[in-house]
Amino acid sequence: MEKEQEIKNAEFQNFENLPQQETSKEKIINNKLELLLDVTLPVSIELGRTTMVIKDILELDRGSVIELDKLASEPVDVIVNGKKIAEGEVVVIDKHFGIRITNLVAVEERIKNVKK
């Protein structure tokens, strides 16, 4: 005499909505980054570049114009600690210049550049 066995469908927990836990490597990286968050870095905006011969540099005078390699419509580079991290457009805020960020270098690339 065989007993009739009850067969049930398997039920699985939904893991999509669970809070993600950091791996130990991520925790170490985040802890190290936490230490750096209050470090002050130099920020500069680069409108463009050019090269000049010494003779032309010595002839510069008030009112001289130096032509740069970028067009007026091109974005300017946002440089942090000597590394490009973004591009933007020049804006005026009250009586000061500012930069509206239009394109960012990927976060991973920015972190890698900070290490260099």
TrEMBL record:
Query: For the Flagellar motor switch protein FliN-like C-terminal domain, which residue ranges apply?
Result: 35-105
Compartments annotated for it: namely:
Cell membrane
- Entry keywords, A to Z: Cell membrane, Cell projection, Chemotaxis, Cilium, Flagellar rotation, Flagellum, Membrane
Gene Ontology biological process: bacterial-type flagellum-dependent cell motility; chemotaxis
Please give the Gene Ontology molecular function terms for this protein: cytoskeletal motor activity
Topology in the membrane?
Peripheral membrane protein
Q: Name one Pfam family in it.
A: FliMN_C
Chief location: membrane
A GO cellular component annotated for this chain's UniProt record is: bacterial-type flagellum basal body
Family under the similarity heading: Belongs to the FliN/MopA/SpaO family.
Q: What is this protein called?
A: Flagellar motor switch protein FliN
